[in-house]
Design goal:
Layout (H helix, E strand, L loop, with lengths): L3 E7 L8 E7 L7 E11 L1 H8 L15 E9 L11 E5 L8 E5 L3 E3 L6 H5 L2 H13 L8 E4 L5 H12 L3 E6 L2 H9 L4 E4 L5 H8 L5 E6 L5 H8 E9 L12 H7 L2 E4 L2 H4 L3 H16 L7 E6 L3 H9 L6 E5 L3
Parallel strand pairs: 8-9, 8-11, 9-10, 11-12, 12-13, 14-15
Antiparallel strand pairs: 1-2, 3-4, 3-6, 3-15, 4-5, 5-7
Length: about 325
């Protein structure tokens, strides 16, 4: 009989409660692949959208969610070199991580600094690579410049604050509660404002010297996208990373023309194909994490059987830091 394992399966698309814990055959690594015993899975809003069938790429069912995880290399497929059994790694596999074991291409493995736990390693790749590309690669942020970080207590927000401060930037953080703003301040945010403050647009502009913010990391979308335009400084750059509102945003090009604004989309999946940009980000991040300047913020942790609740808590904005699911619990 083939080896079996516990895994989350999605047979039909919908809200988080469509996810089911099932017994499935354990995967076997093929040529160029490794099998990893999964320690921790980092949950992103993109995972929630994938289960709902609302992500940037089509979700094909049945499937096992989980695009970002960390674990211990358990076996190697034919031809794999440069990886050792027993080594802790992180991986961006696209899907398949919400299980006891996951198989990924060896080329997609990310070395993990020795000072990170399994949960911290799982909280690292998506959020910190995305934050780096938003701030530096596409955002062209420079020392002394102001940046606005939305959803500041979430996984991407906490990563963005830490990296921005490590780059010598000034941070304005928006979040939904005073508790979340307190976390943003603990991580180094210079100015914190409740995202539903009726005077938030003017307060953001005033905090950045009255002319608006040069760089905005936009993750909310919908009707709030117009506010990002209103808060931007002349020649400001708005990096569109998400659409947490799940609403359509409207953009009138003439508004960009009047103040010479730039709106740039960021999708980590396609940007990872730029090997030069990826290597530059990896080197910079390795140095910051290794020196302790940046520490992945682990939020609530859940057992595999509680995956639907973890997804719903993330959707309901009940969490801070990276939501983690631990299949071995």
């Amino acid at each position: 009989m083939s080896e079996s394992m516990k895994a989350i399966r999605v047979e039909r698309l919908g809200p988080p409660d469509v996810m089911e814990l099932q017994d499935v055959p354990a995967p076997t690594p093929g040529p160029g692949e490794v099998r990893i015993e999964v320690e921790a899975v980092g949950i992103n809003f993109a995972d929630v959208l994938s289960v709902a069938g609302e992500y940037l790429t089509r979700t094909r069912v049945p499937y096992t969610p989980g695009m970002e995880f960390a674990g211990i290399v358990e076996s190697l497929g034919e031809g794999v070199t440069g990886v050792q059994v027993g080594q802790r790694v992180a991986a961006l596999g696209g899907s398949g991580a919400l299980a006891r074991y996951s198989v990924v291409n060896a080329a997609g493995l990310i070395p993990v600094p020795e000072n990170l736990s399994g949960a911290q390693a799982a909280a690292f790749p998506v959020s910190y690579f995305t934050a780096y590309h938003g701030l530096k690669t596409l955002g062209r942020g420079v020392e002394g410049e102001w940046v606005l970080v939305q959803a500041a207590a979430g996984a991407l927000g906490t990563a963005s604050i830490q990296l921005a401060k490590a780059m010598g930037m000034h941070v304005i953080a928006l979040a939904s509660t005073d508790e979340k703003l307190a976390l943003a301040r603990d991580l180094g945010a210079d100015v914190t404002i409740l995202q539903d403050d009726p005077d938030r647009v003017q307060k953001v502009r005033d905090a950045a010297g009255g002319k608006g913010v040069p760089l905005i990391l936009e993750v909310v979308g919908g009707k709030r996208f117009q506010e990002s335009l209103d808060m931007a400084a002349p020649q400001g750059r708005i990096i569109v990373i998400g659409n947490a509102s799940r609403e359509q945003a409207n953009l009138r090009p003439v508004e960009l023309m009047k103040r010479n604004l730039t709106v740039t989309g960021l999708w980590l999946t396609s940007l990872m194909n730029d090997r030069a940009a990826t290597m530059q980000a990896a080197q910079a991040l390795a140095g910051l994490v290794g020196s302790g300047q940046v520490t992945p913020q682990v939020g609530p942790t859940y057992a595999l059987a509680d995956s639907a609740r973890a997804f719903q808590d993330l959707l309901d904005r009940k969490t801070t830091g990276k939501v983690i699911i631990e299949p071995a619990r």
